[in-house]
Amino acid sequence: MKKYRPSFNKPSSNHPNNDDQSVRAKKHLGQHFLTDENIAAKIADTLSYEGYDKVLEIGPGMGVLTKYLLEKNSEVHVIEIDTESVEYLESHYLHLSGRIHEKDFLKHDLGEIFKQEQFAVIGNFPYNISTQIVFKVLQMRDQIPEFSGMFQKEVAKRICEKEGNKTYGILSVLTQAFFEAEYLFTVPPSVFNPPPKVDSGVLRLRRKENFSLDCDEKLFFRIVKTSFNQRRKTLRNSLKTLNLPDNLREDAIFGLRPEQLGFQQFIELTQKIEPYAVSSNR
Length: 282
Fold this sequence. Notes:
Rossmann fold, 7-stranded mixed β-sheet, disordered N terminus
């Protein structure tokens, strides 16, 4: 595949609307445009491109990351909700013709784009919907072997955190049950236009192959979420709403707090509870 790098007009840090080649960052969309070419290239390199040949970039903006993705031997699709950004991409990235999707990633049926094919997901994710993006990737994990991109640093760290730490939580457990999570590097506010008020962090998720949860998935998700809703309490107290029998609640695992359990222990906890769970409540 011929490598192609389209021209890119980086917006002025002081005057993002100084010409017709720039897109105005919109606060309600959580847009912070990356302006550092080296970081964009590093993010593109986080994907292995092994076992798939299609990539979906979320929120490409003016394509600073897109241009480096197009250099890889893969079929790049972008999904963007901002009409102004779509118009910019259509006029500057002719090689993306037919693969620019003006849709809301969270609401759009990605099966219309990829059918049953495998594809990776990447992007500089808006802070205000980043956790929702992760949950959708979890739902579609059978088609997504790899996922990487930029989050608010605190969120990226939480996703990759191990048990026993205060930042470890729902996202950590559910993500690590299905993916190998790795925090890669930190990005300062100064490389964005406009700059956010916090640092950003880039992470990579790689799907665990031949992995079986070995318990009821809906119940597993419910137990993890219910446990961390009262994370300071022991599981014996935080899971009271499940109306479990007293003899089960005397099991030693119920004396622990949720942050003390790794994802494998949450699987074991779900297996213990499963015989007592009411199917209709799962």
